[in-house]
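Thread: "does anyone have the structure for this chain?"

Original post by V.I.:
We have the sequence but no experimental structure in hand. Need at least a predicted one for the grant figures.
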Amino acid sequence: MVDGLSSFMNSFQSVPRGRATSAAFNMESLALNVNAIGVAFNMWLNMDSLVSRFVSVILCVVTTTSAQVAPEIAPHRSLNDLSEGKRLSLICLATSGTPPISFSWSKDSAPIGNLFGVKIVHIDDFQYQLQIDKLTIEHVGNYSCNAKNIYGSDHITIPVIMKFAPQWVSINHETPIGGVAGESVQVDCRAIGHPQPTIRILRESTVIPDDQVVNGLLTIALVTSRDKGDYQCEAVNSLGKLLKTVTVSLSVPARFKEKTSVVTSRRSETTTLKCYAVGDHPISVVWSKGNVKLDKRTSSRYQIIESITTDGLSSELRIRETDRADSALYSCHTENKFGNDDRKVKLVVKDVPGAPQDVRVKDIWSRSVSVYWTPSYDGNSPISKYIVNYWKQHGVSNRPQEFGVPSAQHFTLVRDLQPGTQYVLNVLAENSIGKSEGSRTVTFTTNDEEPEAPPLDVNALTQGPTTVLVSWKAPQKDTWNGDIEGYYIGFKPKNSNGSTSYKKVEQKNNITHEYILQGLNKGTEYEITVQAYNHAGSGPISPQRLVMTRPGEDSPDVPRLFVDAVTMDSIKVHWQLRTGGQILNYTVHHRQADGGAWLENVIVNSTDNSYALTGLRSGTTYEIFLTASNGAMKGDPSQILKIQTLRSPDILVEIFESDGDLPIYMNMYLTVPAAALALAIIVIVVSSCICCRQMKNVQQPVPPQGEMALYGTMVPQRYMDAAGNEVTVTYGTVPPVDPGAIQLQAQTVQMQTAGTATVVPTIANANTTGTWSRKEAPKNRPLPVPSEASDKATGHLYDSAQ
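Reply from O.Q.:
Generated one for you, tokens below.
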């Protein structure tokens, strides 16, 4: 407070004292508003008395509204055809505005400062000039002029653009870059130029994608050894091209990938603590317990083993006969010239729980089981919980499932199982130290339920006037609800009021299942369905498939197909017709038994009803069947033969073939030396002629003299018969054609026990005729049991249609 403070204006009229008693004087407290124009007035402050500590600043400001104008800057002319070395002048003129006006220049939003070659010239109070004596690349940019007074401001921006070839932004643009593993590094390929240059970064002649390069700067977030090497930078515009190479090197500081770990040990056992350090060599690892460094002199129970690796150093601390005193926090310190790191290992000398005992499955349902067990030793640490592990015994989805059980509970119910599935189960105990070993495993099988899904990819194809091939795939494995025992194939004429007939087909381990329906009506459309069944019952029926059998008034007879001879690369077959009839041609179909497209060999004229397939792979099983055509239509197919070519000329082949009438056992040796091949052929021809005359009235089985392993082909097995006494072997060469993937299979049927067999020679090359004579008297041998031959018989099995 100031005593005696008053203010006066013109005729000494005082401003009210209440507005002039503040010790802090301001414009508001003493402002006077004079609206009269041209009125002269005086104003002063009168302070009667002041104390010595009074300090103040009194400001008198007089304003008028008659000329309150903000600056306005005139536009600048556009700058064209600027080039390096020329002079440049930029004018900033305030065309209006109440003085005083202040001017300032900036380049790219930064003050001009001491930019080389640039000076600011004050022309008058309303204009300033920016002068550049000699243009260089450093002068390229956006120049801004700002004019300001107390009433406002204005600014203009003048771009200074000069055409020039690309130049690198980085001064040390080819200095090698030293990267540290795990850190980031930048490859600087930034360049300037006008027009703006196009920048590419290449490594090993491969352009790095643009989304990884930002304005010519490649940032590698986490450098690894794969990022080492040379990077090529390329900057191009219409005035030139710039190239450089940047080398990225890598330094790996010493570090531990795993910073902490806990090791539990049983008392009196040897415990190993491990520290694996990575980093450039030379590198060292030092162990300590608390603040005490460990070495061989610290204790005879300590042993430190180090192994140098390609990327660092592996160090192990072995403690023999551990006891509770060894429970502590151990540390290992690693160091090299690029860095250092520490790792902590906590050792707890206690026992984990013992495995639960007497694990048993008591009650089994289709989707759940009850499990009981007896607790064991707790390892001097209370058991926190039990863990029940269970998984499927077979199949792809056998990943273990687990769930916890409270420690006070010694039984549980395992839910959400799959019906008809074999599982394996064990139980673990867990305490604060860790988990016990798994208990003795228990195997159980859930009860079956009916299959949940129908067979897949059901298809029906006409094979002849009275035959239809039905093919399908098994339902998805997880819908079986048990082991599928077989399938029901339902069929009936379309729109028929009669009941559906069914054929029962046993399950085989095939990817695709096939069955030939025979004895159907000619020229009739049938409805075909398939459904799977297991021990619990049958599943849903597949969608219907419609198929029309062929009209068969003039269809040829079904031929019966037999095998004559087998070599490493050829198979010779012959056939018979049960009745006569005009046949225009035959077609031999064959393929490898493991699948693939059927190949067709059309035989127009065959005097002896035989054909040799040549150019086959040795040791490979083939499927062969025959169809006959009379020109008007193609007849029903014959039975399918499954034949394996020889692996070597010295292998004895045993052939079983039957279609329910004539079983045949044929044994064959091919022991002619290669050096005497020409002489052997002559002897064979002569011997065959004599043999034919002597064997016309002898027809009995030839005993086998060796075996060949039969390899699975993932197709149903069939049996056929062979008949006839063929001696002369004629091989024809008919180019095979590939009509497409023809699928033909049928179910296994029982082998019958009638028939005779003769042995026919085999010749490897096509278009050759040869004979062979028997060198020992034929002997009787018992017929095989089909149920045993189905899966275990060795040699070749030949199928017959159903």
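V.I.: this helps a lot. The chain is about 5% helix and 40% strand.
O.Q.: and Residues 1-31, 33-40, 651-673, 697-802 have pLDDT under 50 and may be disordered.
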